[in-house]
Amino acid sequence: MTTNEALVKYCLRLGDSSLILGQRMAAWCSNGPVLEEDIALSNIGLDLFGQARTMLTYVGEIEGKGRTENDLAFKRLEREFYNTLLSERPNGHFGDTVVRNLLHSAYTYHLYTALKDSSNETIAAFASKSLKEITYHLRHSAEWVVRLGDGTEESHNKAQVSLNEIWEYTDDLFTMNEVDDLLIKENVAVDLNNIKSLWSNTINEILERATLSRPEDSFMQAGSLNGMHSEVLGHLLAEMQFLPRAYPDANW
Amino acid sequence: MEDVKKLEAFQAKIDAEIKIEPKDWMPEDYRKHLQRQISQHAHSEIIGMQPEGNWLLRAPSLRAKVVLLAKIQDEAGHGLYLYSAAETLGKSRTEYLEELRTAKAKYSSIFNYPTLTWADMGAVGWLVDGAAIVNQVSLQRTSYGPYARGMVKICKEESFHQRQGYEIIADMARGSEAQKEMAQDALNRFWWPSIMMFGPHDSDSPNTGNAVKWKIKRATNDELRQSFIDKTVHQAEIIGLTIPDPDLKWNEAKGHYDFGKMDWDEFWRVVKGGGPCSKQRLKHYNDAHENGKWVREAAKAYSDKQLTKEKVA
Question: Is residue A209 in a domain?
Fold first, then answer.
């Protein structure tokens, strides 16, 4: 694997995770619990789509196959996506969504903080800009997890179940392979073991405020590094990619 | 006697183009008219998120997706300003929304039509927002201060929405055969409901009377409709689409387009809840509200706990 091939894969992870989570957030449009939240949830989606566009455009440039951000978003198949397993988890109810977003945004928060110092200028600039947005996403989801956890008995129980059910997808965030080995040497990427301990501290702190219990690490899912996803991703892509696939020659 | 004097003073202000403000005296009918009109306008923004949201997850490019999402977000924001303006008339957002949920309040009938293809995102922006702008531009001069000021802000964003819609439909009209067909089909389906958005002919409009005298309404339904048609015909010509009205003809003497008869039976049927998506839209709103109940309760319970803690401390 060349450094460039590794870089393409690495940037696809970043771009795809933003794209897929953005698509999930967009599905909240007109479904929020109050109008202000509808706007907040869509806003998070908008930020994520912006991040995805930056990264996918960059991938198109460095891979040298003439693919655009749209080719990469709409013309790849399930096994060619490298988004985190967590980002594709379905929205479920509001509690499922904010718990998922807390776990994911705490991860990107620490990851982007570290990537600000990447030797790759595009990644460093991307991380720096995205961090401003992710800081808000983390605050938004953390505040909601605290409200739900320390709200009513019903909301507490719901949030705890959300957390228990999604927990097995968190380990996948920190898995690494030869892509990471290569890029860490070049100071492009960062060691995810370090990110994991920072993430863990943040999550513990929020869960404590939310009076929620951190689940045990028992069976943990993995696979995103090899494009091994849950069944849900295919459905998300089928919907998202419908028009460019149905009308391959059309420009929109 | 006192009321007569107050009414005279009120009318004098209106005639002098001085805005009526929330704490000013106003006739009860003026207040009621505005409560109805502004909340209906707010509800339209909120329900209007659905037909466009229908294509959000299927937008054909990333740019189209973010533009559409930003647009829908603007609409939610317009809903917020409008509910705030309506609240200055002494009724809470909760009360207005209760009227929406129980179908006591109406919203623009146009949103009871389905969005069947991506071209409908073009038609909605171009025609529906286009028609709304004509109305809203005129409402920037409405006599009630908070409503007029809200309209100024809303109009700025709406003109961007209209351009966004026109861009979608223009690209499709210049695209492949399939895209052209979708664009024409969208225009065919949305044209008549769009021009009926201005409401019944002036001669049949029950809400016009005092609204003109009180300068809530600055132009009549027919005037606004004519202005919309006059500017839209040319826009359709530029992109090679045909407006589905065989009677549409430039009238040199009047300096306006003549146009065919609108189907007022359909209009009233949809207003009364007989639109293709009437039940669906309201149910969607009510389901979201119902699904969010436990979340709102949790937020309230949490905030109460914090207040108690503060007091104890």
Answer: yes
**Where residue A33 falls among pLDDT bands split at 50, 70, 90?**
very high
**A252 is a domain residue:** no
Beta bridge partners of B250: B257
Please tell me the total count of domains within chain A. Answer: 1
Does the pLDDT value for residue B196 go beyond 90?
Answer: yes
Answer whether B291 sits within 8 Å of A93, measured CB to CB.
yes
Distance from CA of A194 to the nearest CA of B (A): 33
* Average pLDDT value for residue range B171-186: 97
| Residue B54 token pair | 């229908």
Of chain B, the percentage scoring pLDDT greater than 90 comes to 92
Q: pTM higher than 0.90, yes or no?
A: yes
Q: What is the CATH number of the domain that holds A72?
A: 1.20.1260.10
| Residue A99 placed within a domain | yes
A147 touches chain B (CB under 8 A): yes
Select from B39, B66, B172 the residue whose CB has the most chain A CBs within 10 Å, as the one to mutate to test that interface: B66
Q: Which residues is B258 bridged to in the sheet?
A: B249
| Nearest CB to A38 within list B57, B76, B118 | B76
- Cα separation of the two ends of chain A: 36
Q: What mean pLDDT comes out for the span A130-145?
A: 98
**Is B191 a residue whose pLDDT tops 70?**
yes
Residue A181 within a domain: yes
Residues of chain A with C-beta less than 8 angstroms from the C-beta of B296: 33-34
CB < 8 Å from B in window 164-183 of A: none
Q: Does B298 contact A155 at a Cβ distance shorter than 8 Å?
A: yes
Q: Which residue of A has its CA nearest to B299?
A: A147
Q: What is the CA radius of gyration of chain B?
A: 21
Q: Would you state the structure tokens that stand for residue B28, as one six-digit string? A: 């009860």
SS3 A214: coil
pLDDT digits (tens, 9 = 90+) for B111-154: 999 999 999 999 999 999 999 999 999 999 999 999 999 999 99
Contact check, Cβ <8 Å, A27/B57: yes
B113 to chain A, closest Cα gap in Å: 17
* Chain A residues close to B293, C-beta within 8 Å: 33
Question: Distance from A152 to chain B by nearest Cα, in Å?
Answer: 5
Structure tokens at B216: 């809530």
B8 HSE (CA, 13 A, CB side): 5
Domain that holds residue A121: 3-214+222-246
What letter would DSSP give residue A171? G
> Does B94 contact A at CB distance below 8 Å?
no
The residue to which tokens 């059309």 are assigned: A250
Return the beta strands (E) in B134-284 as ranges: 249-251, 256-258
Other beta carbons within 10 Å of A77 = 10
Map residue B257 onto helix, strand or coil.
strand
Checking phi first, is residue B17 left (phi over 0); if not, alpha (psi -120 to 50) or beta? left
Which residues 99-138 of B have a C-beta within 8 angstroms of A?
118
Cβ within 8 Å of residue B88, ≥6 positions away: B22, B146
**Helix H or strand E encompassing B191:** helix B177-195
